[in-house]
């Protein structure tokens, strides 16, 4: 029977080629890698989301700040034009004084690239600088025509002037003391050349691809770092579409085939939209270095954890391995003593050890009983012929010695 048990154990061992220690190490390493990877992935996603949200908030707040600054400038420019219109009404019939007033308005600040004073028939009465040679000409600029028609303070949409400049006009009506409408004073801002508006918006271009642009309610660019795009109408851009509805907000948008983080706000006076945006890749770029540092600093600790895990698994597996090795030689008398010496310090190993000792005792008891049954008569209990033969052989062998 012992030989059968031994053969059965050897047969099962042939199919099981991995030990408990190796299995525990595989589970430990696999679970550690899975946990480490999950933590890194979750950290990456959380940090990425925070960086994106922070960049969106930053662009949105920046756009709002510039919208307020631009609105303050436009309000200030309107006041300057209104004061010039007030003075122009007093000496409306004096061309020299009108010319002086146009020069004063243009030169006292750098708000305007050019200034014109026009009567209600759209004839230019004075212009600064004189190099424009507009005095006596009939203005055909759509921004001037609209100001003359509205007869109220007006900021025009981007338009092409008679001199071929792409510009906007800030105009104010000239009204005499008795309330007669006389014409308009209009200051221009060039959109494709240096102006205060360019300086106000143009000092915010960053090396990482961040920039801002300004669009009208008609989706027309009036400022862009790439000057050739000024005047272009922007389509298929949900941010520009939302700005056209005089909304403010933030979000991710595809611009020129680049994923951008955009914040946008409107200028109250004109309804223009100021859009500040940054490439998504630039916003999350610091995260790659951060994750590299996290991995670099975590690896020593992970190695230490694996080392401790290996040591712990070895201690746990040692009693079971010793018992498994003794199970191969349960037919050897010394095996029982060896099993008793195994340190089964935890419950499972202790119970397995106890079961093996009980099993071996039971097997020995059964074998002894079988030997007794083989050597004795079942009816009388006396030794039979086989027992007597064995005794004689034993006696003869000892006599010979």
Counting H and I runs of at least 4 residues, what is the number of helices? 10
N-to-C series of helices and strands: HHHEEHEEEEHEEHEEEHHHH
Q: Main beta sheet, described?
A: 6 strands, antiparallel
Total number of beta strands:
11
Structural class: alpha+beta
Task: Indicate the radius of gyration in whole angstroms.
Answer: 48 Å
The average pLDDT score comes to 83
Shape: rod-shaped
Helix fraction, binned, reads: 55-70%
**How many angstroms separate the termini?**
33 Å
Task: Report on the architecture of this protein.
By secondary structure, this protein is an alpha+beta fold. 55% of the residues lie in helices and 16% in strands. The chain contains ten helices and eleven strands. Strands 1, 2, 3, 4, 5 and 6 form a six-stranded antiparallel β-sheet that branches. A five-stranded antiparallel β-sheet has the order 8-7-11-10-9. Helix 2 runs antiparallel to helix 3 and helix 7 (280-327) packs parallel to helix 9. The protein starts with a helix and ends with a helix. The relative contact order is 0.11.
Nutshell version of this structure?
The protein has helices at 2-15, 20-90, 95-108, 142-150, 196-202, 238-244, 280-327, 335-341, 347-375, 385-400; strands at 114-119, 124-128, 154-155, 159-160, 166-175, 181-190, 211-215, 221-223, 249-255, 258-266, 273-279.
Which structural traits does this protein have?
alpha+beta; rod-shaped; 401 residues; five-stranded antiparallel sheet; six-stranded antiparallel sheet
């Amino acid at each position: 029977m012992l030989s059968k048990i031994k053969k059965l154990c050897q047969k099962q061992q042939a199919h099981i080629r991995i030990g408990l220690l190796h299995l525990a190490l595989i589970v430990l390493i696999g679970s550690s890698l899975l946990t480490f990877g999950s933590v890194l992935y979750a950290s990456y996603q959380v940090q990425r989301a925070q960086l994106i949200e922070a960049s969106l908030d930053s662009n949105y707040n920046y756009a709002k700040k510039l919208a307020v600054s631009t609105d303050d400038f436009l309000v200030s420019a309107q006041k300057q034009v209104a004061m010039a219109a007030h003075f122009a009404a007093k000496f409306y019939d004096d061309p020299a004084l009108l010319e002086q007033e146009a020069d004063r308005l243009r030169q006292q600040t750098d708000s305007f690239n050019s200034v014109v004073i026009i009567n209600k028939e759209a004839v230019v009465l004075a212009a600064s600088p004189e190099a424009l040679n507009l005095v006596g000409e009939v203005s055909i600029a759509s921004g001037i025509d609209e100001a003359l028609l509205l007869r109220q303070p007006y900021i025009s949409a981007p338009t092409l002037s008679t001199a071929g400049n792409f510009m906007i006009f800030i105009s104010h009506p000239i009204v005499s003391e008795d309330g007669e409408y006389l014409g308009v004073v209009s200051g221009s801002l060039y959109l494709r050349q240096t102006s205060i508006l360019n300086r106000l918006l143009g000092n915010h271009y960053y090396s990482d691809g961040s920039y801002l642009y300004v669009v009208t309610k008609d989706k027309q660019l009036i400022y862009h770092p790439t000057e050739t795009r000024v005047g272009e109408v922007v389509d298929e851009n949900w941010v520009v579409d939302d700005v056209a509805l005089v909304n403010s907000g933030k979000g991710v948008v595809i611009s020129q085939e680049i994923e951008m983080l955009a914040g946008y706000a409107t200028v109250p006076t004109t309804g223009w939209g100021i859009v500040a945006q940054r490439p998504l890749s630039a916003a999350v770029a610091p995260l790659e270095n951060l994750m590299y540092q996290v991995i670099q600093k975590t690896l020593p600790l992970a190695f230490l954890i694996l080392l401790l895990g290996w040591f712990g698994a070895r201690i746990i597996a040692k009693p079971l391995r010793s018992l498994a090795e003794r199970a191969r030689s349960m037919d050897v008398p010394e095996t029982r003593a060896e099993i008793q010496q195994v340190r089964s310090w935890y419950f499972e190993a202790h119970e397995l050890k106890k079961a093996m000792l009980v099993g071996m005792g039971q097997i020995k008891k059964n074998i002894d009983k079988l030997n007794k049954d083989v050597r004795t008569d079942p009816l009388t209990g006396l030794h039979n012929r086989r027992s007597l033969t064995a005794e004689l052989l034993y006696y003869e062998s000892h006599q010979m010695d």
